[in-house]
Amino acid sequence: MNKFRITITLLFITIFSITTFAQDKLNQYKYLSIPKQLSLQKNPNQYNINTILKDYLNKYEFTAFIQGDTIPNHIKPCDILNLDADKSGFLTTKVIISFTDCYGNNVYNSKEGVSRIKEFKPAYYEALRAALKDPNIQKHQFSETIASVTPSVPTTPIKQTTKSTNTFTLEFKGQHYQFKETDVQNEYQIFQHETLVGTLKKSDGNNYTLKAGTLNGTGTFDDFGNFSLTRVNPVNNASITDIMARID
Predict the structure, then answer these.
(1) Do residue 135 and residue 32 come from a single domain?
(2) 27 and 105 fall within a common domain
(3) Taking a C-beta distance cutoff of 8 angstroms, is the pair 199, 102 a contact?
(4) Helix (H, G, I), strand (E, B), or coil: what is residue 18?
(5) Which of 1, 53, 185, 202 has the greatest number of beta carbons closer than 10 A?
């Protein structure tokens, strides 16, 4: 009996520690960036989901922006968490809300929200509401103390270099994306209207990994600086290749 009680106690302590750690990671951040088009959407702000998410998250002591909103100058890019929501399931709609930092590292994933409604719009609403009931989201409380002692940094060591910043702009479907090289060689932050929307990192050889909401994928640059991006359509799992044209 004593061994059983010790096991249960240790299990409780472990679960409590994991939960507290996850809560502290979210509490480091006050600001959220919501893309105009989430991974689960076919069109920008489809079903008004992005606006609804913004309103919900502002209730949980976040300050949420939708890409394109004006962000005060005092807010640094790495003060902002990037949000996305993806779905899975066949007979049910399952939604998870993910939070990543300015380097593309995952900070937190919500609990899975599930809906058995067949129609997309009400199914998304129900699944997203369920995901937002995640206690670590609802109990979010920004702590400047935690943020100051635990800054947002990559999970892998970075090599500092002394070089000039390389900046260029790509155009995709009428939208301009500005790429600014970080202190790490072959690693870029991606901005749209001065809002951080993602990252581009060299993976191996001439291949790069791009993480920017619906533009998540891999690709290479050609001799003219254009970027060939390959993504996977979440609806049918088909590969899509698009060209992001270099304009400067």
Answers:
(1) yes
(2) yes
(3) yes
(4) helix
(5) 53
Q: Where are the alpha helices (DSSP H) in the chain?
A: 2-27, 49-59, 120-132, 135-138, 144-149
How many domains does the chain contain in total?
A: 2
Q: How far apart are the C-alpha atoms of 145 and 247, rounded to whole Å? A: 42
Closest among 39, 60, 38 to 51, alpha carbons compared: 38
Rg of the chain's alpha carbons, rounded to an integer? 20
Q: Let me know whether 134 and 23 are in one domain.
A: yes
Token digits of residue 185: 């060689």
List 192's β-bridge partners, or say none.
195
Number of neighbours of residue 69 by Cβ within 10 angstroms: 12
Answer yes or no: do 107 and 203 share one domain.
no
Pull the structure tokens for residue 64: 């949420």
CA of residue 235 relative to chain centroid, distance: 20
Q: Quote the domain boundaries for residue 70.
A: 2-149
Please name the residue ranges forming H helices in 60-151: 120-132, 135-138, 144-149
pTM over 0.85: no
d(CA 19, CA 210): 30
Q: Give the three-class secondary structure for 227.
A: strand
